[in-house]
Amino acid sequence: MAAEPRRTEAVIVARGLTKRFGELVAVDHLDLDVRRAEVYGFLGPNGCGKSTTIRMLCGLLRPTSGEVRVLGQSLPAGAEKVKRSIGYMTQKFSLYEDLSVRQNLEFLAAVHGLRGTAARARLDEMYARYRLDDLKNRLAGTLSGGQKQRLALAGAVLHEPELLLLDEPTSAVDPQSRRDFWDALFDLAEAGTTLLVSTHYMDEAERCHRLAILDRGRLVANGSPQQLMADLPGSTLRVDCAQPRRVQQALAREAHVLGIAQIGGSLRVLTDRRDGDGWLRERVRAIDPDAAVEAVAANLEDVFVAATRKPVPEAAA
Fold it and tell me: pTM of this prediction?
């Protein structure tokens, strides 16, 4: 987990940010503060509003209501000024697959107004930093997932943006490439770039300085990963038993159980109670007298499950 940066200047401020598509409310009165040079994470299930929010923050989508300021500019009025100072990397590879690595980056340099010696120096820096030297003449469409990711990141930061917005950028790469990618992100943050990253990987979310959890367009949790885990309104228990599937089926009907996951031969049980494990031990041992129950530390997945748990309809309850 990364240490939280000391800078406090707000780069993104949103109040009541809302986006509707007809009857669908994609983003629902979102309040957001992102500070300079921090890595701020968006975590949430598919369709929760992460991508829609990012598109509004970079000026590609007009909000239905609410206020948002990015890099001191009020949007959408200042969208054109903001676009010159941000980088945007999407989940889907968006560069030209029928152009080479070099041609793609030279094209982007021209778009951003880089010319002559300055352009060549910056391109050489990108080739070296993102290990693209040996790939310059390869068609982008022939690159591996990790190589495409490095090329896309080089393109997004070529013009040295103050703010980098990344929409699930690691969804199609292997674990080592993800780790290398995050090392590159922290290098950028260390140099003063502000990063907002959406992800559905818990290990990536834990690496962020601060984190927003979205659910059905609403902000349901916000803070550092460590703070969110410490403030979890409940407890997490491990159950070791001989018949985990049978015990899981029984516990799923318990009113205070928010979630159950089987990990090997054990069950990880998330509850909304903080009064110890005696009550759960009693219920588990009614099924398996030899079962062991003990409290364990919460993790970010527990926070996510608790924050996004759908309410049970009254009839079902």
Answer: 0.87
Rounded Cα distance between 57 and 30, Å, is 12
Please enumerate in sequence order all residues whose Cβ is within 8 A of that of 91, keeping only pairs 6 or more positions apart, or say none. 51, 167, 168, 169, 171, 172
Q: Which CATH entry fits the domain spanning 233-297: 3.30.70.100, 3.30.70.20, 3.40.50.1820, 3.20.20.100?
A: 3.30.70.100
Sign of CA dihedral 40, 41, 47, 51: positive
**How far is Cα 199 from Cα 205, in angstroms, rounded to an integer?**
7
Task: Check the CA dihedral 255-230-190-11 and report its sign.
Answer: positive
CATH number attached to the domain at 10-228: 3.40.50.300
Domain regions of the chain by residue span: 10-228, 233-297
Residues with Cβ < 8 Å from 242, sequence gap 6 or more? 288, 290, 291
The pLDDT tens digits for 24-75 are 999 999 999 999 999 999 998 888 899 999 999 998 999 999 999 999 999 9
